[in-house]
Amino acid sequence: QSVLTQPPSVSGAPGQRVTITCTGSSSNIGAGYDVHWYQQLPGTAPKLLIYGSNNRPSGVPDRFSGSKSGTSASLAITGLQAEDEADYYCQSYDSSLRIFGGGTKLTVL
Amino acid sequence: QVQLVESGGGLVKPGGSLRLSCAASGFTFSDYYMSWIRQAPGKGLEWVSYITSTGNTKYYADSVKGRFTVSRDNAKNSVYLQMNSLRAEDTAVYYCARTRLVVVGWYFDLWGRGTLVTVSS
Known about the structure:
The structure holds 2 protein chains of 2 kinds. Chain A is mainly beta. Chain A has strands at about 10, 20-25, 35-40, 45-50, 65-70, 70-75, 85-90, 105-109. Chain B has no helices and 11 strands. Chain B is about 0% helix and about 55% strand. Classes of the chains: A mainly beta, B mainly beta. Chains A and B meet through loops of A and strand 5 and strand 10 of B.
């Protein structure tokens, strides 16, 4: 059972903006711990998308951005493209060591 | 080329053992912590274990504690996961990942392609 809750699915049309939320508690995100995001394209390994709540590794388009407030974090994707269709996972720190969210499937309509 | 390549997966009977390997290249392996993360078929990601750069400290998820052992050989640029007393619920793709520390916690900035472990009679 994940301690970080994500919506199972979100969708959007090409060009739109979508947001994926990651809701935690005072034991993880609310304690001020960083949130990181991963993108997993179909049939591939996860890839780091955002680290330290709002930092992009080299090569990640600036269409992807992260934010954090209180006990939640969000991943925003602007200018949605067909290639963004994937599973997205948030990750933080929790003393239970169950550190990943359950994942959100993004469908590009 | 900066990469991680896992090997050693396969079909094993419940109660059996398997040893996974992960070979690193393209970076100074001994500078980094390393982790194992798994993904059951059609499910999400589950962190399994990590090992510090020297191998002196290891952490495990409760679900594998006492059954799995992580180790590394910096001379061979490799990290290993010895899995004993395997159960059906250990069936998953196992990824190794380069691990970066933050003030509290860590994240994974480089992933291998994974190796499939199937536990079934």
